[in-house]
Amino acid sequence: MLERIIRSPLSMMFSYFILGGLIWSHNYSPEEFRPYAAIVSIGTLSVVVLFYLLVYVHNKKNPSRKISFALWIPYEFKEEDEGKQWVTFQACRKVYMFYSFAVPFAIIILTIFNPSPGMLLVMLFVMGMSQYAIYWWEERKYIKDDSEEIE
Q: What is the DSSP letter of 77?
């Protein structure tokens, strides 16, 4: 269960939300929210420490399925066998297609509308959340199809 939580795209979406809130609270929030920036910073640090503590506990309980602290491969990639590698490939392909559309679209929007500095943060946040949503949706689609075929 712990590995499923750590490797879930939802955990990374949550981290985008936390880090986006941290950046917003320090750079773009109204003056009346500035005193709470320290609380947001402490909360963010606590979440990061908790996440790495969960990874440490998982690695102690499952030495054969360790999750690296210095990640070059994202947590979500499931590469235990060829079938899961194919599912990862299909999900990454969809995310790549999304970015091939979303990045030029974001550049056009930012150029035409001359947005506030916070708009760039919002666009990056939406694109990051969309990336994980597409990946998760695609992964669930193939995993669900596989489980139905087995039954």
A: -
Query: How far is Cα 129 from Cα 65, in angstroms, rounded to an integer?
Result: 27
The string of pLDDT tens digits covering residues 96-121 is 999 999 998 988 888 887 777 778 88
Inter-residue contact 22 to 40 (CB < 8 Å): yes
Which bin fits 62, alpha (ψ -120 to 50), beta or left (φ > 0)?
A: beta
How do residues 39-78 score in pLDDT, each as one tens digit? Answer: 888 888 888 888 888 888 888 988 887 877 666 566 666 6
**Cα–Cα dist 43/22, whole Å:** 9
Q: What per-residue confidence (pLDDT) applies to 149?
A: 55
**Is the Cα torsion angle 125, 127, 129, 131 positive or negative in sign?**
negative
Asked if 27 and 117 count as a contact pair (C-beta separation under 8 A), the reply is yes
d(CA 138, CA 64): 27
The distance from CA 35 to its chain's CA centroid, rounded to whole angstroms, is 28
Alpha helices in 1-151 (DSSP H): 2-7, 9-27, 37-61, 82-113, 117-150
CB atoms within 10 A of CB 52: 11
Cα 114 versus chain centre, distance? 27
